[in-house]
Amino acid sequence: MKLSDLAKPFVKSFPVYEPGRPIEDVARELGLDPAGIIKLASNENAFGPSPMAAEAARRAIGQGQLYPDGGCFALRGELAKAHGLEPGQFVIGNGSNEVIEFLGHVFLEPGDEVVMGAPDFVVYRLVTLLFGATAVEVPLVSFRIDLKGMARAVTPRTKLVFVSTPSNPTGTATAEADLFEFVRALPETAICVVDEAYTHYDERAPDIRPLIREGRKVIGLRTFSKIFGLASLRVGYGYSSAEMSALLDRVRQPFNVNAIGQAAAIAALGDREFTRTCAAENRKGIRKLEAGFRDLGLEFVPSHANFVLVRVGDGAAVFDALQRRGVIVRPLKVYSLPQWVRVTVGTAAQNERVLAELAAVLR
What DSSP character marks residue 337? Predict the structure, then answer.
């Protein structure tokens, strides 16, 4: 008997998440100098981590022999100050992806339904399938989340509804008034999950705290991987009612967030000048990329995030050609967008280079 014969049947057909390729892998495969490769595939912060966070991480490794704070007490306290909420309204995850998994552990079982946009962040679907629930995917309209369509898709079997704003991979945002109307109309049996991974880049991002204070079944998800530049440390969080956070905390593994990540996240929250600078530079980068795509005659989706979705024809071929020239972007066949690629905003020099290399490839 093979080992796979002992595995649960659904595991053998379970889709696999494909992350953006690391620079080292591409360099090794193509015989390129890693120093000459730029990665604009995974929506990372091109300006690195907050200097204050990096220093805090260096200090924390000095006590690397000790277990981390299992309850993330200090981090929840700082988040409470930042959001004007109570520490007990937060749950901390190994990236916000883990908080999505917590939601599955607590609320999903076979027969349940989860409503989401299509395309949208692929982890929503993966977690839904992991718990034997059914993914109900509502097509975007003009690359925007279709809240009216999602409302129509909600049934008595719906447990979770995912709304990402700004959305990945499109970069489009949902207006606060529209989101509030949508959440307030949901039945008591459905929970709205508002994924705010890119919220710091959106100058008009919704503030869901009034919904939480109204007692609505809503949770916001945020991450330290994007504007704070701490993707490698895997720290994210959810904020909601104290009841929601307590339920999610019940399924959290002990010590799920390492001490270095916690220390860096706390320091990053205090480095407001860094985040302001990153947001401002991102706006410049968005304008540069969009202008460059326009000059190349390429269709793109105006973005509120730190990436731009652009139509290049054969997305896989353009991805491969750019990669051979030392530029890594994200092909989007997995999102049913085979003619498109997603380009992360880089530094000014990186943005210039990706536009030049893309022009050469298209010629």
Answer: -
Provide the whole-model pTM: 0.93
For residue 289, which phi and psi values (nearest 5 degrees)? -65, -45
Count helices and strands (H / E) in the chain.
Answer: 14, 13
Write the DSSP assignment of 276-300 as a string of letters.
HHHHHHHHHHHHHHHHHHHHTT--E
Taking the domain 51-271, which CATH number applies? Answer: 3.40.640.10
pLDDT tens profile 172-227: 999 999 999 999 999 999 999 999 999 999 999 999 999 999 999 999 999 999 99
Name the amino acid, one letter, at 106: V
Per-residue pLDDT reduced to its tens digit, 232-282:
999 999 999 999 999 999 999 999 999 999 999 999 999 999 999 999 999
Residue ranges matching CATH 3.90.1150.10 in the chain: 3-48+273-362
Per-residue burial over 312-336, b if 16 or more Cβ lie within 10 Å, else e, is beebeebbebbbebbbbbbbbeebe
Does the domain made of 3-48+273-362 have the CATH classification 3.90.1150.10? yes
- Residue 22's CB: how many other CB atoms inside 10 A? 15
d(CA 95, CA 175): 25
* DSSP, res 144: B
Angle between helices 122-130 and 96-107 (to 10 degrees): 30
Tokens of 292: 């460059």
The neighbouring-strand residues paired with 115 are 136, 161
